[in-house]
Amino acid sequence: MADTMLLRALKGQPKNISLANKELDTVPRVIGKLQCLTSVNLKNNKITSLPKELGYLSNLTVLNLGNNLLEELPEPLGSLHSLETLHLFNNRIITLNTKVLGGLRNLTLLNLNNNLMKNLPGGINKLTKLQSLSVDGNKLTTLPSELCALSNLQELHAANNLIVALPLEMGFLVNLRKLFLQQNRIKELPEGLGKLYKLRVIDIAANDLRIFPTELNKLPLRELYSEENPLLQQLPVHSVQEEEILSLKEIVARYILKELKDRYVVMETNYYKNCLLFSFDDCLMFFHEICIFIQVQ
After folding, report:
1. Distance between CA atoms of 230 and 289, rounded to whole angstroms?
2. Which residues of 254-280 are buried (b: 16+ CB within 10 A; e: fewer)?
3. How many CB atoms lie within 10 A of CB 182?
4. Residues 6+ apart with CB under 8 A from 208
5. DSSP count for the chain of H helices, then E strands
6. How far apart, in whole angstroms, are the C-alpha atoms of residue 19 and residue 3?
7. Residues 115 and 87 sit within 8 Å (Cβ to Cβ)
8. H or E segment and range at residue 295
9. Continuous segment of H or E residues that includes residue 265
10. Overall pTM > 0.85
11. pLDDT tens-digit readout, 194-239
């Protein structure tokens, strides 16, 4: 049936074609003759591989391979240099072929939701024009620092993974506007987030956060979701003596003095105990000597 549809399409030279919901396990090779195609929809099939002829579609800008049975990036994708939008959601992809990624130089949107990936390769930085990356619902434990080289990235979706830490280089994603990291295991956010002045939406709900970076309050955020985190609930405590600022030396000296005042030394003999207590005057004398020692240091 799919072959018949494609043969008919050869007469009309269409720009868009849909072979969705056809229970295909492969794509007819004749598709390579439809050089005029700019959009192909192959979602909701049983496709496990792609023919090399698909790589002949030099004008293709949109390809939907969502909800199939792919376990890796098929090599023919690397020949689709004009491709801008690629949907690969709901497959069985475990890893990304860096060589294939290198051929997708005009890709602006990549949807890899609900696959089986445990990590993203450093080669992800080859997608230099990428504006939207979605890897929700995988098994990622971290994001590579190379991802932060994607200076055109505007949306990053990495919710419902196993991520425990974010790269410190996040501050290089200068055009990032939306960041979705809900339902992970993130314990802290990198300070670099405070430099993303175009950021408008952050969803960091259902993680393991206790505090936010200090610079985050300077961002012109429109939406911030942080529920289901063990954030500190206590209000800031203000010093009663606000005008008194102690130096490190003073803090150390006061600590030693307090310890001396509280300390006693018990000396035992065979038949009795003698309790030798430092007098307060002895403490003051020792405190004075400590202060002199610290000043010399």
Report:
1. 46
2. eebbeebeeeeeeeeeeeeeeeeeeee
3. 21
4. 185, 186, 187, 229, 230
5. 4, 12
6. 10
7. no
8. helix 280-296
9. strand 264-268
10. no
11. 999 999 999 999 999 998 888 888 899 999 999 999 986 533 344 3
